[in-house]
Each structure stands twice: as C-alpha cells, then as structure tokens.
Batch of 3 targets.
Target 1
Amino acid sequence: MGNIGFLFPLVVVVAVVRNCVATLSAESPNTTTDRLALLGLKPHVTHDPQNLLATNWTSVTSVCNWIGVTCGSDHQKVIALDLTNMSLRGTIPPHLGNLSFLCHLNIRFNHFHGSLPMELANLSSLKYINFGHNNFQGKIPSWFDSFTQLQSLFLCENNFFGVIPCSLGSLSNLEVLILYNNDLKGQIPIAIENLSNLKWLYLDNNQFSGQLPAALFKCRELEILSLSNNALEGIVSQEVRNLTRLSELYLNTNNLRSMLSVGLP
Ligand SMILES: *[C@@H]1O[C@H](CO)[C@@H](O)[C@H](O)[C@H]1NC(C)=O
Ligand SMILES: *[C@@H]1O[C@H](CO)[C@@H](O)[C@H](O)[C@H]1NC(C)=O
Ligand SMILES: *[C@@H]1O[C@H](CO)[C@@H](O)[C@H](O)[C@H]1NC(C)=O
Ligand SMILES: *[C@@H]1O[C@H](CO)[C@@H](O)[C@H](O)[C@H]1NC(C)=O
Ligand SMILES: *[C@@H]1O[C@H](CO)[C@@H](O)[C@H](O)[C@H]1NC(C)=O
Ligand SMILES: *[C@@H]1O[C@H](CO)[C@@H](O)[C@H](O)[C@H]1NC(C)=O
Ligand SMILES: *[C@@H]1O[C@H](CO)[C@@H](O)[C@H](O)[C@H]1NC(C)=O
C-alpha cells in the first residue's frame, strides 16, 4: 500500500511539467516579481542543512537557474517549483502566491509546518500540488477550489484535520486526490460525485465516518480506491461494480460489511 502511493506520483511529476510547458502563453520577460516571490520564501525557511537556498538562490544568476526552479521555455516566468526532499524546515509565506504562472508546486518530503496562506489561491494555473510528507496543520482550505486546472493534489502524511471541504467537488479536472495519513474526519462529501475524472482516491489512515456515499460510485474513472483504516460504516453494495475501471480497492479496518459475492478483479 505505502509503495503504491509513492511510486506512481513520480510518473505524474514528469508528465505534468511537460504539460506546463505546452500550455503557456507568451508574456514580456520580467523575472522581478517571481524573484521577489521566491526570495520571500528564504527567511521563512528556518532550517536548510545543505544550505541549498542560501548558496544557490542568489542574485548572481537568474531565478531560472536556481535549484528547484523551472521557467517557461518561451518566457522567463517560473512555471515549476520542486523542492522535494531537501530537509527544509519552515513555513510557506504569502509571497508564493505571486508566482502567477506556476503550474507545478512540489515540496514533498520536507518539514514544512503551519497552515497554508490564502494568497496561494491566486495560483490559478496550478495543475499539480504536492505538499505530502511534511508537518502541515490546519484544515484543508475551502479556497482550494480556486485551482480550477488542478489535476493532482497530494496532502498525504501531514497533520491536516477537519473535513474534506465540499468545494473540492468543483475541481472537475482532478484525477489524483491523495489524503492518506492525516487527522481528517467526517463523511466523505457527496460533492465527490462531481469529480468525474478522478482516477486515484486515497483516504486511508484518517478518521472518516458515516456510510460510503453512493456518490462515490458515480466517479466512473476510478482505478484505485483506498479507504482502509477509517471508521466507515454500512454495506458495500454491488454498486461498486459500476466502477468498471477499478483495479485496486482497499477497505480493511472499517466497520463495513461487503455484499460482494465474488472479489473484485
Ligand atoms: C519588471 O516588473 C517590475 C515590477 O512589476 C517593474 O518595476 C520593472 O520595471 C519591470 N522591469 C522591466 C525590465 O520591465
Ligand atoms: C544552483 O543549482 C543549479 C542546479 O543544481 C546549478 O546549475 C547552478 O549552477 C547553481 N548556482 C549556483 C550559483 O550555485
Ligand atoms: C531523500 O534523500 C535521501 C538522501 O539523499 C535519500 O536517501 C532518500 O531516498 C530520498 N527520499 C526520497 C523520498 O526521495
Ligand atoms: C507579493 O506578495 C506579497 C504578499 O502577498 C505582497 O505584499 C507583495 O506586494 C507582492 N509583491 C509583488 C512584487 O507583487
Ligand atoms: C490575487 O488576485 C486578486 C484577484 O485576482 C487580486 O486582487 C490580488 O491582488 C491578488 N493577490 C496577490 C497577492 O497577487
Ligand atoms: C455537482 O455539480 C452540479 C453542477 O455544477 C451541481 O448542481 C451540484 O450541486 C453538484 N453536486 C454536489 C453534491 O455538490
Ligand atoms: C449503478 O449502475 C446501475 C445499473 O446501470 C444503475 O441503476 C445505478 O444507478 C448506478 N449507481 C450509481 C451510484 O451510479
């Protein structure tokens, strides 16, 4: 299980950065705003054991040469920020909301904490967000519905609590929603029925309760559904079979009873 949520995302990373490059429009090159936005992150990083930001994010070179930063090929705006596994500790400043062309934001496997600033809602070009494997706290913000182009959202292995906001149901391009290992609770929102492109849903290791909503069986593209280790109740009906693309289903450690006479493929 742990391995599944871990290997596939690497494939997604590569695919999405390519996707970013293809969908940009040209604009007169000016890196000033982006440079200030990234420099805004530096004082919020309180621990950088390899001194990566301190020695590399300097005015000697353009932001486009900074470690973890990718600019569009036809202009000098930052389209991707990838600080994966750099042992960074700190918080996310509002300044990152100024990276107006950002399409790909990946800071997984660090020690970022605190809550997410609302200014990030301005990043309406984001297709890929990975805050997984950090120490973020707070609720999943309802303003995540600003990310109208979002395809992948990873918030796994953090301390997010509260319910899944219904507003996430409006992310009609969402294909990957990974929320395992948090302190999330409440019912799986009915609004999930509107995620008609959803392929992978990982909600395992939280405190979700209530019945499995029939709405879930309207997500016809679902390939992987992982709900293990929650407090879900009721009967798993034959409607699971409506999910014809489903290849992996994890339901263990809940209060569910299965009415399926034969196992799923
Ligand atoms: C770049 O943008 C900044 C802030 O918007 C502005 O002050 C500066 O004059 C611009 N530089 C160029 C070369 O256009
Ligand atoms: C920053 O890191 C990038 C990528 O590793 C490298 O190409 C560049 O030369 C570094 N810049 C400085 C000033 O160290
Ligand atoms: C993180 O970096 C360490 C040290 O370079 C490496 O051993 C580990 O496999 C990396 N983890 C991930 C998830 O990339
Ligand atoms: C960037 O964002 C910060 C905080 O949200 C704001 O105060 C600042 O004026 C912005 N800077 C630019 C250059 O847009
Ligand atoms: C975010 O966008 C709103 C409206 O699009 C704008 O009024 C606001 O100034 C933006 N904030 C930042 C920090 O860029
Ligand atoms: C799903 O989307 C439709 C159309 O936008 C909307 O009318 C409906 O209320 C949504 N369902 C839920 C449960 O939010
Ligand atoms: C599942 O499929 C059956 C038969 O096609 C249909 O009657 C039912 O409404 C479907 N359930 C959902 C939740 O879409």
Target 2
Amino acid sequence: MASSSLIFAISAIFFALRFSSAHSLTCTSHKLPGKDFPNCKDLPTLGATLRYSYNATNNSLSIAYMATPAKPGGWVSWAINPTGQGMQGAQAIIAFKSNGTVVPKTYNISSYKSIVESKLSFDVWDLSAVESDGVITILATVKVPGKPDQLNQVWQVGPSVTGGRPDKHDFAPANLASKSPLSVSTSTSARENTTTGGDKNGGVSVTNNRFGVGFFAGLLMLVASCVNF
Ligand SMILES: *[C@@H]1O[C@H](CO)[C@@H](O)[C@H](O)[C@H]1NC(C)=O
Ligand SMILES: *[C@@H]1O[C@H](CO)[C@@H](O)[C@H](O)[C@H]1NC(C)=O
Ligand SMILES: *[C@@H]1O[C@H](CO)[C@@H](O)[C@H](O)[C@H]1NC(C)=O
Ligand SMILES: *[C@@H]1O[C@H](CO)[C@@H](O)[C@H](O)[C@H]1NC(C)=O
Ligand SMILES: *[C@@H]1O[C@H](CO)[C@@H](O)[C@H](O)[C@H]1NC(C)=O
C-alpha cells in the first residue's frame, strides 16, 4: 500500500535525523565546561560549533571550536582565511591526538598541496585543545586580520593522522561546504546564548558526514514517489 510505504519513509527520515543528530554537535547539546562565551553558532556543516567573543579594544577574537573527528584518532580544524574563501590561503589551527594527548598546531595552508606547520600570518595566543567523549575543542585568541565584520572562516574534520601530520579529509559535500563568512563585531556581551536564532544555517547541522545530503535527497525522493502512487 502506498500509505504504508509513505509512513515507512517518514519514519525512516525521523529515525535518520534522530540518529545522525546524536553524532552532531550543537550549541545546546554540547556545553563548554569552564569558560563562558557570549556567542555560540552551530556551523552549517560537519556538526561543529563556534563560540566566540570579540574585544574591540585590542581587536582580538577568542574562540572555542568544537567538533568530532571524522574517525576516532582523526583531527579537527578551524581557520581564518585572510586572503580569500575556502582552504587555499587559510591560516589553520588543527588539533589531534599525539602520544595520547590532544595538541593544537598552526598551519599555513598556502595551497591544497602545501599544508605546512608554521606560525600564522596573525598573532595567536592562549592556544590549547582538549578532548572529551571523542569531541575535540580548540581554544585560542587571535588578533583579527582585517575587518571584524568581514572574516572568512573555514573548518574541517579529518579521519586520521600519520607521523604527526593530519591526513586528507573526505571530499563529501559537507566537507566542501565547510566555510562561511563570520562577523564578530556585532557580538553580544551577554552570557552565552545557546539559542541558534539569528543564525540562518543553524538547523542544517543535522546532516553530518555520516548521512550526507545525498542520503536525505534519496529519502525525500522516496517520499515523493510514494505520494505519486
Ligand atoms: C579587551 O582588551 C583590553 C586590552 O587588552 C583589556 O583591557 C580589556 O579588559 C579587554 N576586555 C575584555 C572584556 O576582556
Ligand atoms: C587583548 O585582549 C585579550 C582579552 O582581554 C587579552 O587576552 C590579550 O592578551 C590582549 N592582547 C593584546 C595583544 O593586547
Ligand atoms: C604561507 O606560505 C606562503 C607560500 O609559501 C608564503 O608566501 C607565506 O608567507 C606564508 N605565510 C606565513 C605566515 O608563513
Ligand atoms: C611521541 O613520543 C615519542 C617517544 O617519547 C617521541 O619520540 C615522539 O617525538 C612523540 N611524537 C610526537 C608527535 O610528539
Ligand atoms: C538569545 O538569542 C535569541 C535569538 O537571537 C534572542 O531572541 C534571545 O533574547 C537571546 N537570549 C538572551 C538571554 O540573550
């Protein structure tokens, strides 16, 4: 019967959404212990969050980036690209487990082929990383390169690290779309506000890399074809 397959398809979607959201972070699902930030955003892909506070007096930006590596033993990364959008030119902080401890390192990603551990083109201080329940948090304060209302952020998660070097990440749609403009100059000075209102991409983070966009498109097509019967 068409209606029973429709019900099946709809329950499959709800199940998938529930299941995948368990692997995906949001500002409300994962608190940051210890430190308060006035702003938190669910990033549009890869189930990552960015907490931040901007200090206009000395043009500094403190961030806490939370994400789950693509596989246990993998890496997470947050970057500002002062010269463009996307990975090429990004000044990245990458954190991964090294000898049992999570360490943050800085990389100059001048091209896809040249990911060199180096100082960044802007000052970074108070850099640290912690892991809890498989979630890695990068904490850092950076001197904002350029205008605080026109930053380009890039983030990523990767599956593995070989010889102290992060291996290539997947090239699924979620991995390729993980960049967005970031405006920190209008940040509130209130206590951490975990509602995602005002973040137009807030709800998208349930499509993580385990069930990519294609998976959901497939389910929607299944529903559509059921309705046609
Ligand atoms: C902002 O930076 C200035 C200069 O370092 C400092 O005096 C001030 O306390 C900072 N404000 C906050 C809210 O941290
Ligand atoms: C800027 O302000 C932040 C926050 O108060 C502080 O941690 C940092 O040391 C200051 N940096 C400079 C370069 O003054
Ligand atoms: C990053 O690498 C590019 C290309 O090698 C170089 O021109 C640039 O100066 C580097 N930036 C930093 C901050 O090291
Ligand atoms: C891990 O520990 C070994 C032995 O202490 C050391 O030789 C190696 O350099 C460490 N690796 C990293 C990436 O720190
Ligand atoms: C949190 O943010 C939402 C949406 O921007 C806003 O409606 C709400 O008033 C804020 N709550 C607090 C306590 O600032």
Target 3
Amino acid sequence: MNARIPYTRPSITEREMRYAAAAVANEWGDRCYDSIHRFEAMFGQHLGVSHAIATSSCTGALHLGLAGLSVGAGDEVILADTNWIASVAPIVHLGATPVFVDILPDTWCVDPIRVEREITTKTKAIVAVHLYGNLCDMDALRAIGERHGIPVIEDAAEAIGSVWKGRRAGSMGAFGTFSFHGTKTLTTGEGGMLVTNDAAIYERVLALSNHGRTRGQPKQFWPDMVGFKYKMSNVQAAIGCAQLERVEELVARKREVLYAYRQRLGRLPGVAMNPEPPDGVNGAWMPTVVFAQHTGVARERLQAAFAADNIDARVFFWPLSGLPMFTPARSNTNAWSIPSRAINLPSFHDICAQDIDRVCRVIEGCVDA
Ligand SMILES: *Cc1c(COP(=O)(O)O)cnc(C)c1O
C-alpha cells in the first residue's frame, strides 16, 4: 500500500513552538492578554482594517458579528447554498431564516443576480463566502447591498491570502470573519477572528464577546446585556503571531501547490479548477477539481480511486438546503449538481512533488477510464 497522503496538515516550525512556550511561561496575570492583543493588532494591519477581535472559532466570530447587526427572529439572511454548515449555524441560532441561493458555475461562489432576486423587506444581511479561496464578486454584492441598504458580510475563513482588486478578502464587508482551524492556511489549532472598519460594530461585538460588558462600564462584574463567551486563549494567539509572521510564505506555498495541480490537471478536457480573477489573487486554500457533466465522471468514482491509492481527498460541500434540517432548494442547479462531479485535492504546505504527481495520476486515470 502506498503511504497515506493527508488532505491538510498545518505548517508548524520552531517559531510557533517558541512563541507558545514563551506565552505559557510568562503571560499570566497582568500579561494574560499580551499575545491576543499582539495577534489582533498584527492581523488588522495585515488585512488593512482598523479593528480585529480574536475569537475561539470562525463560527463564534460569525455569531458575534450577526448578533452585533441585531439579526434575530423574523429576519432573513442570504447566502450561497454551497457552504459548510458553520456559515449558516449562527443564523439559525439567532432565530433568523437562511435563504439559500445558487452559486456561479465558474467561481462556485454566490451568484449576485440570484442574491438580489431574493431580497425582501425581511432581509437583514448578505453573507459572501469566498469558497476554497475563490473570490465572490464583491463589486456586484456591495452594489446590491448599497442599493437596498443591506450589509454585506464576508466569511473569509477559506480566503486568507485572497485579494480582490487590491483589497484583501475579509476587509471589504461590514465585517469579515476568519478561521484558524487546523485545516486552514493559517492555524492556531482552533480559533477565529472578526475584523471591521466600522467603529460602532467593533464596540458592539467587543461588548458581546465579553459577556455583554461595555468598555466604558465602570462597575465590576456588570454586564449591560446578555453576551457570549467566544474568546481565543492567549497561548493560541501566541501560535497565531508566529503563523502570521509567516503568512506570506504560507500563502505562497498554497499557491504553488494549486499552480502545480492547475498546470497538469487544468488542461485536461472537461476539467475545471479554482479560478483566479485577472485583477485578483486566489489564496488557494483548497485546490478543487470539477468535472463537466458530459465527462460522466462522478464523485463516487473519484472517491474510490483516491481511496484505492490511500489518498485523503474530500468531497465538495453538499448543498446546505439538502440537509435534513432545511428545505431542499433544487432550483439551485449549480449547487446541487457540481458536488456530484467534484473533489478536493490534498494541499498541505509541505506536500512534495512526488505526492502531487500521485494525486494527478489518479485524476488522469479517471479521465481516461
Ligand atoms: C472552516 C470554516 C468555518 C468554520 O470555522 P471554525 O473556526 O471551525 O468555526 C466557517 N466558514 C467557512 C467558510 C469555513 O471554511
């Protein structure tokens, strides 16, 4: 049996270990938030935004941000049908109704025309998720948001390193969120971040993230509202500081891996991979292959071929509306069809050329078969 190829794995160096050890040894008492504050400041600077709040996860960051926008019962929030459950769970927890719209066939991100069609008097927010590092059409989405007075939010969990016309993914919406889960390009094990340029959203989310205690509140142990507890730990933030100092290197390597796959697989007949806008950058979190309908190549065949070669390839996200707790939106034809003929490829930073070759040969074998 060939050696196992995992699909993701973080890139951890001596620097991450040193920063974590220093935080464990020294940062307690008065210094118990030192690494958190440093990580937040560095992250805000990297993204070009004025405010950043470290959280325990991206899911938590989304929950805080949506609560900060007062999303609640009776409201609707529009997002792509193709997504991980994390992008919709906070909407449901807040009592709002998710409205699932179709994706575009080339970027696999939300279709702005479908978004505008679904806007009602109840629409409270639009969530733009940059799927697999691919970019949403932010010009179109922001124009729609402005036309209707509805905030556009970016879930940029998969898009660190992605850039839309000179602006980093996550920095263009009312707020943006990130994940530092162990599978993501930059990791703290578990963790997330909320970023915004809006001082009012920042203050509200900061209070909500601190059990509802506002910054100006002089009384101790005095919450002004019922909030949340979604904080990142200081030791995780120390790891994040080390990762962030390496962010250019981490993203560059992910892009190299995507490029290597695209060079070889992107030219196969009937095969599409993650696109890059001409005036943008794809952070290349998850190299993905989508077969055209006419090829007849199906997910199950791809899964079986990768399993036979001991390679951990993953399925493209199922349409959320097809999950048992939602109502099937079968008119979202791209979201319902693409996953049945697509697969995510292994892309960890230190994957070697021989392993990329093994992965490519599996795909080539499926084309020939
Ligand atoms: C990973 C991911 C999340 C969830 O992140 P957690 O940190 O695990 O909560 C949310 N949205 C998207 C788009 C993701 O890829």
